[in-house]
Amino acid sequence: MTVPHTQGTKRAAPAPDSSNPPDQAAKRFKKRTFNSHAIRKMGYNFEIPVAIAKVRTKTDQPFNVGMALGVMLYYIVPLISSHLDNAIDYHKKVPQALQWVTGFVEAIDQYIAYLRLTDGCSEKFPDDTTVDRKSRRPRRKYMERYTHLVENAYKEHVREQLCDVFLSWTKEQTQLFNKGIDKALSGIQWVVYPGENVVLAAGDDEWAIWLRGQCEELGMLEARARRKVLEEM
User: Fold this and answer.
1) Quick one: which of 153, 163, 170 has its CA closest to 200?
2) Which of 94, 145, 172, 183 is the most exposed place for a label (fewest CB within 10 A)?
């Protein structure tokens, strides 16, 4: 499975907009069927228990574990984008690629809703094609902010919940795991991958960017030895 690359450089989360106070947004929620208590709870405690449990059943398949975690990370950006195109109580239909992991899309939706509740931006953002450049800035600002926060929450949760698995793997298993992550995020397949786990080593940096840097260094060594650097796609 080849998944398009969506990650860029490390992002800092912009400050929330104070022009629309959160308490005003909360008042509007009273007119909706909306569990704001559940949203607040999810916002402070991002969890995807079904995903973690399913991944743990495949720890003897490190490449597939890497693919699974990479695909979930890849879908965070389009899920945020869809959410901002709608009002705060929006629920995204689960994409085909994520139907195996019950609760992941719901967890992302609820976390974004919590962030929007906190920032006071409950209404859907206008379509970029219908507004001028200045009017597009708020959406881009929140898109950048929420991508940073949600991706970091996901990566931190994966690190905490699967650290024991990652530490139990051999170097060869870790290389296969990194290869699976890279396959999901960039579609590129190097011949040699680092023996250090990307989830533990990259921290809050982009997984795809960290892997590319490591693999480029290893690739230069392979090229000097006149060995193949990239696998044939």
Assistant:
1) 163
2) 172
The one-character DSSP state at 9 is S
Please name the residue that has the structure tokens 């929140």: 142
Q: What does the alpha-carbon distance between residue 60 and residue 79 come to, in Å, rounded to a whole number?
A: 30
What digits encode the pLDDT tens for the residues 31-82?
334 455 555 554 458 999 999 999 999 999 999 999 999 999 999 999 999 8
CB half-sphere exposure, 200, CA atoms < 13 A: 16
Dihedral angle sign, alpha carbons of residues 52, 54, 60, 61? negative
Give the pLDDT confidence of 77-132 residue by residue, as tens digits. Answer: 999 998 988 888 888 889 999 999 999 999 999 999 999 888 888 777 656 555 55
Break the chain into its structural domains and give their ranges: 22-168, 170-233
